[in-house]
Specification:
The protein is an alpha+beta fold. The protein has three helices and six strands; from the N terminus they run E-E-H-E-E-E-H-H-E.
Length: 139
Amino acid sequence: MCLGRYPCFNDFFTIAESAGKDYGGKNLNMKKINHFNDSVELRNLIISNPDLPLLVFCGEDSWSGEYPYELADINSAGVKELTLYKDYWMDKDEYEDQLVDDLCNEEKYKNLSDEEYTQMIKEKVAETEFVKAIIIYAG
């Protein structure tokens, strides 16, 4: 439910049918607020996963640096499992690839065969904690 003269949640995820309406002194004269065309998909993700955290990842194009906050386009959204590794959020495949690259030159792994090395990486991935969350990519 939206209160007052300001746009509600749905207004920012749909085509601006409200072009020309006055929202608190600001005129939203744009044909499209967001590239994420199907707001139903995002709403359903949130409704069907109420206990999952919501993580928003903003690309470098999402902020011009001119204003403290800017409206950014949502490129995609979905449920993923991520882990934080060296200050970067990665899914299982990205994490596995990164471990392969990071550990290949370590002395304790140099004597492993390719099969043993691959098995060791898979074990490290299996031991790692991943966070299941609703992920939104913006910008």
